[in-house]
Amino acid sequence: MRDKWIFLCICALFIVIASGFAQSPQQTQNASPKKPSSYLPVVDTETFAATHDRMSAAKSAVMKKQMDLLAERYDLSNKPAAGVVMDRSKAVQDGVRVKLSAGVNWAQLAGMTAQQIRDKDLFPQGFLPLPHANHPEGGMVFPKFEIQEILKQEERDLTRFDLDFDLPDHFLPEFPPAIYLTTRPDLGDVSKGQLVTIANFFDLFNGILNPKQIEGLRLLLTPFPQQQFNQTGDRRSDKPSRGVACLDCHANGGSNGAFHLVGDIRPQEFRHRIETPVLRGVNIQRLFGSQRALKTVEDFTEFEQRAAYFDGDPVIATKKGVNVLERGSQVHFMAEFQELLDFPPAPKLAWDGKLDPAKASPAEVRGQEVFFGKGQCSSCHVPPYYTDNTMHNLQAERFYKQHMVNGMMMAADGPIKTFPLRGIKDTPPYLHDGRLLTLDDTVEYFNLVLGRNLTEQEKKDLVAFLRAL
């Protein structure tokens, strides 16, 4: 009886298997698609060599697609503003770089409603969200000058075999940025024109910082495993990597323009490109992260290490080597150093953050009047640091229809924190994703989205004022 039962079970199993093989191609095609998941695969199904060869071969086509998009959206030529430089000598880029649709100008756009611009598809493409260089893939991407200097000082390579940086260098901050300390303004740029790394930080800061701050700086300069740079086969560097340091993106506590994707949005096409903000002035800020609304710099520091480095996936973090920081000492030390980073000097500003009339030009004075008057910029950007330490939703999606571009959905940005405007000329590109290449672009964007109807002269004067902050 038992043998007969086993025989019947085996027959039934064969029937089930045979029916599976007998499915028609049409049945297979009609199978329900795979559900989207919040989780990345943990087990590698492809060898590193195969992944490397496949993605390296696709790199040129991926980058061409992104560079074609940038050329379609912007005038990428090098047009320095006369007599306007960043911290030391790098020229600030001049002029509006966003391209308009044929047959329309800024004045005409300003006279239209959001619905009319949407229906006629006239919203400037450069005002749309900016995709990652390879949005379906994502991850940290560093400019070449940062890669070269880290390789020179530390023999650590931040090159990705699948991607290059996309924006031209002349639209990025001066490299390396200067470092100003709230505790020692008399010293000026304490970096002495050098990129601060694990190789030189002690010589530069011993005798200026206290021991806790020096230890915090050391941790900010220490590379730890990250999604694309780690020891596993699931990486995007040729060789196994020690990882990425906080100040690889926030170079000298400023920014080098490095970008990646926010870790807290799913699915992938809705994730936002995030351009590295400066850490200058975090001591006066009450919100951290462009959209995360983290309440302290300690929260931000810990969040980056535990979550943002690994796209918000703790399982992947465990696989690749998460750096669990001790909150009471290590996170505190790192935060203490960050809170010393000051805004650059602004010699034309008085104690209240407004222009000293004796030092400002007529254009700057007129621009200040627009800022506090017709432009209503000060309703969010409150002096002396030009932030209200809160978040605002500009609702720019009123102007365009949702659609896909280079793997990214052109959807709503949602609430974005008010970034301080002090030292703004030194930190291009602008907005949370770097879609606005110049201050001129930024003025045009807010003039259109907020309906301020500024004249050409008012816009030029406003740019002059912003450069003085």
Task: Give a verbal description of the structure.
- The longest helix has 26 residues, at 48-73.
- By secondary structure, this protein is mainly alpha-helical.
- The chain starts with a helix and ends with a helix.
- It has a two-stranded antiparallel sheet. A two-stranded antiparallel sheet has the order 3-4. It has a two-stranded antiparallel sheet with strand order 5-8.
- The protein has 2 domains: 80-131 and 348-468, Cytochrome Bc1 Complex, Chain D, domain 2 (Orthogonal Bundle); 133-338, no CATH class.
- The relative contact order is 0.13.
- 33% of the residues lie in helices and 5% in strands.
Measure the end-to-end span: 92 Å
The structural class is: mainly alpha
Q: What pattern of helices and strands is seen along the backbone?
A: HHHEEHHHHHHEEHHHHEEEEHH
* Proportion of residues in helical segments: 25-40%
- Give Rg in angstroms: 25 Å
The number of distinct helices, counting runs of at least 4 residues, comes to: 15
Q: Please tally the β strands and state the result.
A: 8
Helix-strand blueprint:
Elements: H1 2-21, H2 25-29, H3 48-73, E1 80-85, E2 91-93, H4 106-110, H5 114-119, H6 144-154, H7 201-205, H8 211-220, H9 246-249, E3 259-261, E4 273-275, H10 297-306, H11 314-320, H12 327-338, H13 362-372, E5 391-392, E6 403-405, E7 408-410, E8 416-417, H14 439-449, H15 456-468
Antiparallel strand pairs: 1-2, 3-4, 5-8, 6-7
Helix pairs in contact: 8-12, 10-12, 13-15, 14-15
